[in-house]
Design brief:
By secondary structure, the protein is mostly helical. The protein contains three helices and no strands. It has helices spanning about 10-30, 35-55, 60-95. Helix 1 runs antiparallel to helix 2 and helix 1 (about 10-30) packs parallel to helix 3. It starts with 7 loop residues before the first helix and ends with a helix. About 10% of the residues are buried. The mean pLDDT is about 90.
Length: about 100
């Protein structure tokens, strides 16, 4: 049974989809910062967001809170990872000069 209604899980799925598309389009915006594994993680993120959107109505509030916390942690780790990629790239460019 698919029951898509407006609830917090829909918002969480949309936020996850937005974050995954940012990771996916990083290859177009700044190719040097992207890695090949970003495509794999983007695909997993789209699958995860579709599952949350389609089956999120079944989540208890505490399970939804755990999914939100996992999403916040992963966004923080992803932000730091991309920032560190930029720092490494900058250091490599300075070394070449």
């Amino acid at each position: 049974m698919i029951n898509i209604g407006f609830n917090p899980a829909i918002l969480l799925g949309i936020f996850i989809l937005f974050a995954v598309f940012i990771l996916f389009f990083l290859r177009i915006i700044k190719y040097n910062l992207s890695r090949d594994l970003d495509l794999f993680f983007s695909t997993l993120g789209v699958t995860y967001s579709c599952i949350i959107i389609l089956n999120g109505w079944r989540l208890d509030p505490i399970l939804l809170l755990s999914q939100v916390l996992i999403f916040i942690i992963l966004c923080g780790i992803g932000w730091e990872n991309i920032r560190l990629r930029g720092i490494i790239l900058k250091k490599e460019e300075e070394k070449d000069i």
